[in-house]
Amino acid sequence: MGRPLIADLLARGHVVRGLIRPGSEQRLPPGAAPVVGNALDPATFADRIAPSDTMVHLVGTSHPSPAKAAEFQTVDLASIRASVSAAISSAIRHLVYVSVAQPAPVMRAYIEARRSGEQLVRDSGIPATVLRPWYVLGPGHRWPYLLLPMYGLLGLFAATRDRASRLGLVTLRQMVNALVRAIETPASGVRLLEVPDIRSR
Questions:
Q1: What pTM value is reported for the model?
Q2: Is residue 152 part of a domain?
Q3: Is cis: bond before 51, omega within 30 of 0?
Q4: How many Å apart are CA 181 and CA 8, to the nearest integer?
Q5: Whole domain around residue 104: which residue ranges?
Q6: Residue 85 domain-assigned?
Q7: Is 23 helix (H, G, I), strand (E, B) or coil?
Q8: DSSP-assigned states of every residue in 44-111
Q9: Which one, 73, 82, 125, 158, has the greatest CB density within 10 A?
Q10: 79 domain-assigned
């Protein structure tokens, strides 16, 4: 998600800094300024993100599954904690956080970590946009297209329509578009974008 987002922002004239691990500078799209650091340790990057008006948090465990519950705490939650700390010390004016749709019947440990991340964002006092996708369709993540007929069926019934909408699928392009809009129209408080909002942007 980070590469297409950075490419879109650069094409629209934004100045972009990207936090990367040492030796990964080449992974940033041309035109983005690398900030080498550790996403779990704000001391390694907090003094190099200003001046910036918006921070976007995209760090998380790859291919989340119930077996990775410990990583949701040590990576997902720890990284947003570090980002919030860095954002406060750097006087960031808007924070964008990708959370997850909730409530949901599965992935409870993942949802709990992301819910705790949302609370950290709220407690920071920084105006923020929180996006809540359920599953993002993109390269290597296309099998859920098989679920589309089921979503269509669930959407026909009042008892299941809300859940089908809230836990619906979004495309990578829809996510990137929603992130760009969130960056370019900062929230004044804490703004939540659920799946229908992400699809409409």
A1: 0.89
A2: no
A3: yes
A4: 11
A5: 2-136+170-194
A6: yes
A7: coil
A8: GTGGGS-S-SEEEE----SS--GGGHHHIIIIIIHHHHHHHHHHHHTT-SEEEEE---SS-SS-HHHH
A9: 82
A10: yes
Specify the pLDDT at position 145: 56
User: What type of residue is 156?
Assistant: L
Q: Which residues are CB-contacts of 106 (< 8 A; sequence separation ≥ 6)?
A: 66
Total domains present in the chain = 1
Tens digits of per-residue pLDDT, 48-65? 988 789 999 999 998 888
Q: What angle do CA 60, 66, 72 make, to 5 degrees?
A: 30
CA 83 to each of CA 26, 28, 94, 133, 176: distance values in angstroms, whole numbers, following the listed order:
23, 19, 12, 20, 20
Q: What CATH number is attached to the domain comprising 105?
A: 3.40.50.720
Contact 52, 45 (CB under 8 A): no
Residue 69 corresponds to which amino acid? Answer: A
Residue 187 lies in a domain: yes
Predicted local distance difference test score (pLDDT) of residue 41: 97
**Per-residue pLDDT reduced to its tens digit, 132-160:** 998 888 776 565 655 555 555 555 666 66
Residue 169's pLDDT is what? 85
Token pair for 163: 């859940």
Of 134 and 128, the one with more pLDDT = 128
CB distance 167 to 195 below 8 Å: yes
The structure tokens listed for 57 are 């948090």
